[in-house]
Amino acid sequence: MKKFFQEIKADIKFKSAGPGQKLTESVGEKAPKEKPNQPAIWQPRQGPTNEAQMAAAAALARLEQKQPRARGPTSQDFIRNQVRKELQAEATVSGSSEASGTNMVPKPKEEDSAHLAVPGVYFTCPFTGTILRKDQRDTQIKEAILSHFSTDPVAASIMKIHTFNKDRDKVKLGVDTIAKYLDNIHLHPEEEKYRKIKLQNKVFQERINCLEGTHEFFEAIGFQKALLPVPDQEDPEEFYVLSEAALVQPESLERHKEQLLCAEPVRATLARQRRIFRPSPLGSQFDLPSDFFNLTAEEAKREQRLRSEAVERLSMLRTKAMREKEEQREMRKYTYTLLRVRLPDGCLLQGTFYARERVAALYSFVREALQSDWLPFELLASGGQKLSEDENLAFNECGLVPSALLTFSWDTAVLEDIKAAGVKPDSSILKPELLLAIEKLS
Questions:
Q1: Share of the chain above pLDDT 90, in %
Q2: Which of 24, 104, 112, 404 is most open to solvent, judged by the fewest CB atoms within 10 Å of its CB?
């Protein structure tokens, strides 16, 4: 029994001695050899002491106390943006999206508009001269045309035909048909059949009745509705019949026909929103509003289709004609562009243009702002590319969309004449009233 317990003790001692240790060797002889390796094995696994943990906690506390002061004003912007996001999220969850849009959206928009190069895209009403937003222009023009009926119903009905109907092909077909009716009356004044127009006639229904403003036009030039009998038919039908008063003035019908044929749709003109900025190194940086990038549902579908086609094009070779077609499609991507011109004194002249407008429009815009608008000058794009006023190129064809910075340069051929006229090449050349409204570009 005693021998059994001795064997158990020896076995326990063997296992506790560690790897490679013999029972005949003393612990003192082995310890010096293994001691250098023990710290490398066990020291990284030891946790920090209580004193080290307390020191680390104190250091973190001091760092947290200093951190808000180090952020400065940017922390306020972060907090304000975070609060705004949370309020908008709460409004969306609670279902009060209309209230949120009314109360929350305008404030950030006004707040951010100070940093935008232009607040948006605006238009000028051709009737009243008022400045309109993009979503207001059609409504304002329609109201102005309708109010014009009380003073000149013929002109108002012509404007309504050309403006209210968007399909230009249908408008042209309907206008040509009306002109044919009036030509028949003018060429055959004695023929009674030409002075009557059957409203249920197939041609009238398909070409004229489907257009807004056509009935107002017929009534304004002297036609009146009447129920007339139809041969071989029991019930009468409705006709437009030219009155006797209009028949005795055939020249007025001819004049109204010419007005109808020559008229164009009434459109609000794009407001240039001219601004003058002091010299700034930020002239080439543009912060554009969403109006420059908004896509309609139809445009969004087209963009998606173009992306799908782009994936297919990667797997096929393209001809020169195919590449040119793609470039033309890319040029039509933007509707508006914001252009700046750096003047000789460093000031920046800014304006809004249609992307399809010609370079000559920019030359006219710059010339209107000069004291001496007769002096010849040149406009240079990035890389020194000269934009000729005589070239019939659009801004999107020159790569000047959705924004670009150009440089004003005097025509070197007449530079001596410019100096002789008393104009310093590097001085301010703007009209004095424009310099009074000069701004700082932020």
A1: 40
A2: 24
